[in-house]
Design brief:
By secondary structure, the chain is mostly helical. The chain contains 14 helices and no strands.
Length: 306
């Protein structure tokens, strides 16, 4: 029973970074912009957050640095694809490759660095409950803030005027522009907010989840987060569920290894990526379902007056 509680706790921890990045990418795509550079954003934010934590010892400063790095790179990406109408897919791939190389270069001096003992969070009265306490109530505050963010985004997108405008820009930027909304600025803001969330996800990986810096430590989570938005049909609650599902698959490999299951470790390491491929294959069998839920202008450039 105790092992199951630890597995559930590890699932929440592993899913948090995926959920944050997935929610950020969902905001991007709801505005009509697809950003394939999430992997690079998360890597740059991971080293920015880790370096800040090493020098300041502050988790808050580390997350702020990660968010700032993600937002800055996302802003550059946004300027290119929104104002210069560069190809969104090619620009995103270029951003991913840049982030991978840049983080490896900057991070060479931090590979041996170690952070001080991380704050252990215990919620009074709840963390001591058998099974439930270790599983649900001994996590970093960002785990709970991520759940709150998903709930807020669900309300924001479907119950608020600003969310309706964001969705309108993603569905028909021409109509939104005709009504007087600054489509380009709204898209840029959405891209920057999405980049900031990807940045917080990257900082969480290097500062809380690991906590250390290793080249390429994001290990494909940016790509899984991209797949997650499609898997969730662009709905925040489903992004959260999908993130924990993938997080659980990731943790399952370690659990099975600990139980002595006689399966090559390489096969177990493949599980999260195999699950991603299987989910995408199953979704692609019903393209009409994707088309109905997908923002109509996703990936399409918009130029006022054209």
């Amino acid at each position: 029973m105790n092992e199951l509680a630890l597995l559930l706790a590890a699932t929440l921890n592993a899913g948090t970074a995926l959920a944050l990045a997935g929610l950020g990418l969902l905001i991007n795509e709801r505005s009509g912009i697809i950003n394939l550079g999430a992997e690079g954003l998360m890597l740059v934010a991971a080293i920015a957050g880790f370096a800040t934590a090493v020098h300041t010892g502050s988790d808050v400063a580390a997350f702020a640095a990660g968010a700032g790095a993600g937002a800055l790179l996302a802003a550059i990406f946004g300027m290119l694809v929104i104002w210069l109408n560069t190809n969104q897919y090619a620009t995103g791939l270029a951003l991913s490759m840049f982030g991978t190389g840049f983080s490896a270069f900057v991070g060479t001096g931090f590979t041996q660095a170690r952070l001080s003992e991380r704050l252990k969070v215990h919620i009074p009265g709840l963390s001591d409950i058998p099974f439930i306490g270790p599983a649900l109530f001994r996590h970093h505050p960002l785990v709970y803030l991520t759940i709150a963010l998903a709930i807020f985004l669900g309300w924001f997108l479907y119950r608020s005027r600003a969310g309706l405008i964001l969705r309108a820009v993603g569905e028909s930027p021409e109509s939104a522009h005709a009504l007087g909304y600054p489509v380009r600025r709204i898209r840029l803001l959405a891209v920057m907010v999405g980049g900031a969330l990807c940045g917080v996800a990257g900082a969480y990986l290097s500062v809380i989840y690991t906590p250390l810096w290793v080249e390429g430590m994001v290990s494909g989570r940016g790509w899984i987060a991209l797949a997650l938005t499609t898997f969730a049909t662009w709905r925040p609650a489903r992004v959260l569920v999908g993130a924990y599902l993938f997080g659980g698959v990731t943790m399952l490999q370690f659990y099975l290894q600990g139980e002595g299951v006689q399966v090559p470790s390489q096969w177990l390491s493949m599980l999260p990526y195999l699950a991603t491929i299987v989910v995408l294959v199953l979704i692609s069998r019903n393209p009409t379902w994707i088309r109905v839920n997908m923002p109509a202008s996703l990936g399409k450039p918009f130029t006022p007056g054209h």
